[in-house]
Write a structure and sequence with these properties.
CATH topology of the largest domain: Ubiquitin-like (UB roll)
CATH class of the largest domain: Alpha Beta
Shape: globular
Bound molecules: FE2/S2 (inorganic) cluster
Helix content: 25-40%
Number of strands: 5
Strand order of the largest sheet: 2-1-5-3-4
Distance between the termini: 46 Å
CATH superfamily of the largest domain: Beta-grasp domain
Mean pLDDT: 93
Low-confidence stretches: 161-168
Structural class: alpha+beta
Length: 168
């Protein structure tokens, strides 16, 4: 079957098998390997992408179901040669160690900040509750998202300095 969708702002049309999952379409058909595939149980969340602005686990969506929709992957976060505030937050606050969970975490963070630019720690933890990180203990991931929220609001300088490198 033929499927057409928008991926990171570009229309793409491909012939696919109806059983193909979106995560494999992105990685194997389009070569967008920034979206990771981490489990067979829909639990880890490293495969999260945005579909029409909402985070979805791309291992639970058939590529055919994404037809006609707008998909945004981690490759589409940076714009105009500038990293997204979420990317800068993860970099500045050491929000990753091995980095395997990071694409999904950042896409979920982007969706959260798009609908709630000033989330509480509880709201951040709730937003990422469907995702697993085996390395960081989540503390610096939460700090990274708080940093991004402050950065895009232009108030980062009023926050306490980040504890870069103090994972867990
Ligand atoms: S690959 Fe683990 S939830 Fe999608
Ligand atoms: S940084 Fe390793 S799983 Fe999250």
């Amino acid at each position: 079957m033929q499927v057409t969708m928008t991926v990171n702002g570009e229309a793409v049309t491909r012939e696919i098998e109806g059983r193909l999952l979106l995560v494999h379409f992105l990685r194997d058909t389009l070569g967008l390997t920034g979206t990771h595939w981490g489990c067979d149980t829909s639990n880890c969340g490293t495969c999260v992408v945005l579909m029409d602005g909402e985070p979805v686990k791309s291992c639970t969506v058939l590529a055919a179901m994404a037809g006609g929709h707008e998909i945004r992957t981690v490759e589409g976060l940076a714009a105009g040669g500038e990293l997204d505030p979420v990317q800068r937050g993860f970099m500045n606050c050491h929000g990753l160690q091995c980095g395997f969970c990071t694409p999904g975490m950042m896409m979920t963070a982007r969706a959260l900040l798009d609908r709630n630019p000033d989330p509480t720690e509880h709201e951040i933890r709730e937003a990422i509750s469907g995702q697993i990180c085996r390395c960081t203990g989540y503390k610096n991931i939460v700090e990274s998202i708080r940093w991004a929220a402050a950065e895009q609001a232009g108030v980062r300088s009023t926050l306490e300095p980040m504890t870069v490198g103090s994972a867990s």
